[in-house]
Amino acid sequence: MIAMQIRLLLSIAIVFSGLGLGVALGDEPELKTLGAQVEQSSEKILALHEGRQREFQGRVLVEATAGDVLLQTDDGTLWLFQSDQILSREKLDESFIPVTQDKLAERLLAELPAGFRIHTTPHYVVCYNTSRAYAQWTSSLLERLYKAFTNYWENQGFELEEPEFPLPVLVFNDRQSYDRLSRDDLPAGVGNIVGYYSLRSNRVNMFDLTGAEALRGAGSHRGSMREINQMLSQPAAVPLVATIVHEATHQIAFNCGLQTRFADIPLWLCEGMAVYFEAPDLASTRGWRGIGRVNYPRLTTFRENLPDWQMGSLERLVADNRRFRDPRTAADAYADAWALNYYLIKYKPQAYTSYLKLLATKSPLVEDDRQKRLAEFREHFGEPDELERAFLKQMSRVK
Q: Taking the CA of residue 30 as centre, how many other CA atoms within 13 Å lie in the half-sphere pointing to its CB?
């Protein structure tokens, strides 16, 4: 799901390149980005948004010489403004302070229709209008994922950060309201997507899976533990729970310092890592148990496509995002990305961690060309054609 959003955001970056806010094809950008040496002061911007004047307050992450701005508000939301949208700017004599969980909860309840409630955990603010049992099950799954994800990368030598903002999660009681209230992120609708992470708002949106038609039980209360356990006992739940874990993995990665929102993170890595973590364990009532399990649906797709694999395919996967953007090839690209991430994490862990550290330094709204992507890949993993042979040989043996 995040692939579509990154495509949109990078296309914005390319459009803005003529304005000085982003660049393509390896040109040097004329912009300033927020760094450790930059004071994180607040600024007030009056801008035209959706045809009306609106006031925004936050910190400027990117500022182009032409006057275009990437602003982050105190809840973590990112706003892109072109210079002709900005009516006025005012520096404030106050530091940027992230919103508290209580304040974020208050805002979410004010934004959403009546009937929503709040459930909080150490890292998450879950706003829901389904059952409390389902909200608790969801937040428990997310906290387990958070702990496993951060422990894993810290054990690999990556110094992660605590999220600067509370992590917002919206859980709707049915697909219809989920679709209707997600139109700001997905104007064309959610389609068959059961959950997604928004790079702009930093939220994960989903709906109560016990109400999904394929999993709907009879004679029991929607969202109850009985319904949740019944859901987890059905094979049809595998891709649904996997999607929730996948999108939550994106949210964690973009909030703990592993990746930067609006930065040009290659989709083979961004999506492949999320697929690596997504494999659910429906033998457990928790729905997900740990990291590094073989993702058999992705492995099956990868194996089915091996007879048609052409040497050089790995280099093309690494060099650009085209296969992820094309609906005809996206499913196969995700399977290949899972296989490549699985191989690199298992057999080249130090190089993989070093590569992640490089990607973590990338700035928002600067697009890398294919030559730079390949050069960075070679620096950490060697020549793609040599790696490709070892990769295919090893992945053909995975059971």
A: 10
The predicted-structure confidence for 325-337, as pLDDT tens digits, reads as follows 998 999 999 999 9
pTM equals 0.88
Contact status, residue 197 vs residue 251, Cβ threshold 8 Å: yes
Choose which CATH entry (3.40.50.2300, 3.40.30.160, 3.60.110.10, 1.20.58.1610) describes domain 101-258. Answer: 3.40.30.160
Runs of H (alpha helix) within the chain: 2-17, 101-111, 132-155, 175-180, 225-232, 237-253, 267-278, 296-305, 313-319, 322-325, 330-347, 349-359, 370-381, 384-395
- Alpha-carbon distance of 1 to 98, in angstroms, equals 27
Structure tokens at 260: 């930067």
Domain with CATH 2.30.30.520 in the chain: 2-95
Pair type for strands 124-128 and 117-120: antiparallel
The Cα–Cα gap between 187 and 358 comes to 34
Q: What is the dihedral of CA 215, 220, 223, 228, to 10 degrees?
A: -60
Taking residues 72-82, report their average pLDDT: 96
The whole-angstrom distance between residue 308's C-alpha and the CA centroid of its chain comes to: 30
For CATH 3.40.30.160, the residue range(s) in the chain are: 101-258
> Tell me, what amino acid is at 16?
F
pLDDT digits (tens, 9 = 90+) for 274-323: 999 886 565 655 555 567 788 888 999 999 999 999 999 999 999 999 99
Contact 19, 83 (CB under 8 A): yes
How many other CB atoms are there within 10 angstroms of residue 296's CB atom?
A: 13
Identify how many contiguous H helices and E strands the chain contains and give both numbers.
14, 11
Which pLDDT value is given to residue 288? 58
At residue 132 the predicted structure's pLDDT band, cuts being 50, 70 and 90, is very high
- Whether the per-residue pLDDT at 395 is higher than 70: the answer is yes
Among the CATH numbers 2.70.70.10, 2.160.20.10, 2.30.30.520, 3.30.450.180, which is that of 2-95? 2.30.30.520
For 18, residues 6+ apart whose C-beta sits below 8 A from its C-beta are: none
